[in-house]
Amino acid sequence: MEGDKKSFRITTSDDLEVSTYLEIAKEKGGEEPISEKVAEVDREAVVVIDFGSQYSMLIARRVRECQVYSEVLPYDAPWQRVASLKPRGFILSGGPASVYDPGAPLAPAYVYESHLPILGICYGMQVLAHQLGGRAAPGTRHEYGHAILRQSDVGSPIFASLPPSMPVWMSHGDQIVEMPPGFTTLGYTENSPIAVMGNEHGIIGLQFHPEVAHTPQGKEILKNFLYHICGCSGNWTPGSFIAESVERIGGQVGEGKVICALSGGVDSAVTAALVHRAIGDQLTCIFVNNGLLRREEAERTLNTFQRNLRMNIIYIDASERFLRRLEGATDPETKRRLIGEEFITLFEEEAAKLGRVDFLAQGTLYPDVIESTTSESKASAKIKTHHNVGGLPTKMTFSLIEPLRYLFKDEVREIGLALGLPEEMVWRQPFPGPGLAIRIIGEITKERLEVLRAADWIVMSEIKKAKLYGELWQSFAVLTDTRSVGVMGDFRTYGYLIAIRAVTSEDAMTADWARLPYDLLARISNRIVNEVPGVNRVVYDISSKPPSTIEWE
Ligand code: XMP
Q1: Is 211 a residue of the active site?
Q2: CA distances from 31 to 117, 169, 457 (A)
Q3: How far apart are CA 128 and CA 8, in angstroms?
Q4: What is the pLDDT, as a whole number, of residue 34?
Q5: Residues 71, 113, 211, 342: which is the catalytic one?
Q6: Which of 507, 550, 552 to mutate to test the pocket of ligand 1 (most atoms within 8 A of CB)?
Q7: 201 has catalytic annotation
Q8: Which of 313-317, 340-344, 394-398 has the lowest mean pLDDT?
Q9: Which ligand 1 atom is nearest residue 511's CA?
Q10: Average model confidence (pLDDT) for the chain?
């Protein structure tokens, strides 16, 4: 695969023909050639160069699923940033541009000069063709959806152990009409005569998307690239993520002080546990009980962190304070705003008592990063103001530590387990920052909170008993503002109406109501009306998102 290192002629974003890797290495003042540096490290990483595809992070995630570390970096990331990851190869993502658009993003010269293997996906493949002397052009037909890929060169390592034909997912307008010198066709579809191309230096282009679930063998193809072309062995595990993060956080924090807001949820819990492993008592966690938590939630969270993990925790029971602040509030957005404001005030008061604090650790995950960039960059309508305990103190001048920034929820869970957090905490269903306040329609009072807690407890325990807790995205009770007539014994009642909500979802962006078994619903309903004073009717919410949302407020 090493081959002749001077064989490429490369066009970069500035349309310059650049010198070869050895010359560049010299220009950089005698720095060692990149590939030699790469050989020194044992962590295997592959960098995804992002051209703006909605799937870029999914590529990185698939690579990590193959036990090779991966991060997505923008196409104009400086070499130093890339070099710090010591990559074994590059993947060029798809993207919305056409390589012939003026100013279309192209791969930086170092991608080619490193002489590491490169996998170009969709637009990334067109970039390869364009920069290495081939030609992409608008296809006669845009191609979206399923296609059958046939290997034209059975035996290429990119197809190791794969059948001669397989379904793949296409989504492109342009296609390759002329391969760069030295490339051959490795696969084709009905509409793309050059659906896969490659050369002897380990540079491969795929016109389809191997990262999406609609390409069933896509992960195998990526694995072949990583294992057979980049030479990775798959040594990246949650354990190695923890070891690296601990080292990085330790280096970043030095002697500094860090605070972290705990919510009881898995993201802030894993963040805190990870930071704690790196810097021990330099971390102080602040756990605010806003009085809007589920039954036993505060006690369990405290127990885990204080007793089991022996972390520094400031516990503030601010239930009364939040309840006072929420008095009379019935509008959902007002409730969220009041809770958010009160939380910031409290958090700031407590942080100030600690003296100088340098860092704030937050459990930001990759979907949060996408959500916030999307809402910043697009004029999307605001449905709900999400309040997360981790994301608030905008006025404060801390540096941020966000060790989970590139991970998805299931990866975070794996890391939580590897850190020794209790299963119950790691597999907890998501719970909104404003807590039960947005599950009580209308005013929040102590009495109504108690009714909801009792009903919610029954829902939770019956769902767990039925072994459905892990299969549902969320399952909970809602206290509505409707009262209805009932009869108990010989008496008329006029009681609360509880709604049960249980949904399945991948990411909360869409959700379907869960088809819970009737006998389970019957047990829940029966227990609630019998055990929760003041409730005489239970209904099951059978609406999906959209058009409904998961929470009622
Ligand atoms: P919706 O109700 O918008 O909820 O379909 C989608 C997901 O987000 C959670 N959620 C919140 N989480 N702060 C949070 O931390 C909030 O203000 C908030 N509102 C909704 C909800 O539980 C579901 O998982």
Answers
A1: yes
A2: 21, 42, 63
A3: 11
A4: 34
A5: 211
A6: 550
A7: no
A8: 394-398
A9: 5
A10: 87
Strands 184-188 and 196-198: antiparallel
**Can you say whether the dihedral through the CA atoms of 464, 468, 471, 475 is positive or negative?**
negative
How far, in Å, is the centroid of ligand 1 from the Cα of 78?
A: 37
Please determine, for residue 552, whether its predicted confidence score (pLDDT) is greater than 60. Answer: yes
Ligand 1 contacts CB of residue 388 (under 6 A): yes
CA distance 330 to 386: 17
How are beta strands 491-504 and 512-513 bridged, if at all?
Answer: antiparallel
User: Cβ–Cβ contacts within 10 Å for residue 352, how many?
Assistant: 10
Eight-state DSSP code of residue 225: I
> pLDDT at position 35, please?
34
Specify whether the CB–CB gap between 362 and 400 falls below 8 A. Answer: yes
CB–CB of 81/73 below 8 Å?
yes
**Is the per-residue pLDDT at 12 higher than 70?**
no
- Ligand 1 contacts CB of residue 549 (under 6 A): yes
> Which one, of 461, 70, 477, lies nearest residue 234 by Cα?
70
Contact between 58 and 52 (Cβ < 8 Å): no
Spatial separation of the C-alpha atoms in residues 183 and 130, rounded to whole Å = 13
Q: Which of 384, 456, 512 to mutate to test the pocket of ligand 1 (most atoms within 8 A of CB)?
A: 384
Closest ligand 1 atom number to CA of residue 386: 17
User: Which residues lie closer than 8 Å to 420 by C-beta, 6 or more apart?
Assistant: 273, 309
pLDDT of the residue at 408: 84
Q: Are strands 118-121 and 203-206 parallel, antiparallel or unpaired?
A: parallel
Query: Which atom of ligand 1 approaches the CA of 438 most closely?
Result: 19
Q: Work out the pLDDT band at 395, boundaries 50, 70, 90.
A: low
Q: State which ligand 1 atom lies nearest to the alpha carbon of 549.
A: 5
Taking Cα atoms as reference points, which of 426, 428, 438, 434 lies closest to residue 501?
A: 438
Residue 545 Cβ inside 6 Å of ligand 1? The answer reads: yes
Which pTM does this prediction carry? 0.74
**Residue count (the chain):** 553
Per-residue pLDDT band at 204 (split at 50, 70, 90): very high
What atom in ligand 1 is closest to the CA of residue 548?
Answer: 5
Name the catalytic one among 122, 230, 232, 260: 122
In a 10 Å sphere around its CB, with 0-12 CB exposed, 13-18 middle and 19+ buried, how is residue 305 labelled? Answer: buried
**CA-based torsion, 56, 58, 60, 66: positive or negative:** negative
Nearest to 205 by CA among 108, 100, 135: 135
Return the residue whose CA atom lies nearest to atom 6 of ligand 1. Answer: 508
- DSSP annotation of 550: S
Residue nearest to atom 4 of ligand 1 (CA): 550
Distance 100 CA to ligand 1 centre (A): 42
- Catalytic residue, from 130, 172, 201, 209: name it: 209
Is 551 near ligand 1, meaning CB less than 6 Å away? yes
Q: pLDDT tens-digit profile of 256-300?
A: 999 999 988 899 999 999 999 999 999 999 999 999 999 999 999
| 459 neighbors 466 (Cβ within 8 angstroms) | no
Instruction: Name the token pair of 434.
Output: 């404003």
Across 429-452, average pLDDT? 96
